[in-house]
Amino acid sequence: MIDLNIDMRQYDCPFIDTTDDADVAFSAVQWQLDTDAKKLETRLIAKGESRGELEDGLRRLRAHDNMNDCYVLSKQDNVAQIGTVIDETNAMRTIQRNGGYITGPFQIENGREHWHIGFDDDEDEDETLAELERHNDFDVENRDQFGATTLFDLLENSNSAMHLLEGCRSLTETERKTFEAASQFGYYETPREVTLEELADHFDISKTGVSMNLRRSERKILDAAMSALSSLDGESIGSEP
């Protein structure tokens, strides 16, 4: 299986056009393509910079020429869960016609859309990308090729991956920035390439403050890693193979 991560701008997508005009972003949580009716039904999370921007974005989305139906399932402050039905776009049609398929959720923000699409062979991939270039603007940000064994391993251990993802998401913005800077500047190298004092100067806080931020981020990441290890292949930490 070939898996592509694509940054794309479609010129007939209501979600992309809406994020051009309003400070709102969309993340798909469910989608169903009806190839016979040439319609795409989706459930998405819409998030605006403010409640007003969310309302403006939903208004623009409903008014788009390529939007058949748009309804709110739930809403709180500047976040809403919505359902939509749109006409099949050129990119969807091209991918489906050439044997491609969607392999993950898509996100839309600032007039761009991130897609995850898969192919079974190089020829289908090449034909699809060549055709997409005629009507869309895109960049392939990442390309992976998996064999059956690797795919099985990924699916079998998806729970472990979720533990790691949840651990990363649990970091506050301050903890994440401190942890990233420490790693980038060589705090975890042997010997260390940066000291706590230098990190403290970088963030303009005390040595104690930067140390506490690092310890909290390290603990969260370590806890997530230990949880992932404990669920890896259904084995507990320290068990015999």
UniProtKB/TrEMBL annotation:
Keywords: Transcription, Transcription regulation
Domain HVO-2525 N-terminal intervals: 3-138
UniProt key word Chloroplast: no
Pfam families associated with the record: HTH_10, HVO_2525_N
Highest taxon above the source species: Archaea
Keyword Transcription regulation: yes
Domain spans labelled HTH bat-type: 171-222
Protein name: Helix-turn-helix domain-containing protein
